[in-house]
Amino acid sequence: MATPVVAVGYPLDLPETPNFGMIAGFRSEILGRYFSTTHLRVNLPTQRGEAGGAAFEYEGEVVGIVVSSLENNSACYAVPIEAAEKIRSDFVRFGEARHGWVGINVSEAAQPVEGSRAEMDPDHG
Question: What is the pTM assigned to this prediction?
Answer without folding.
Answer: 0.66
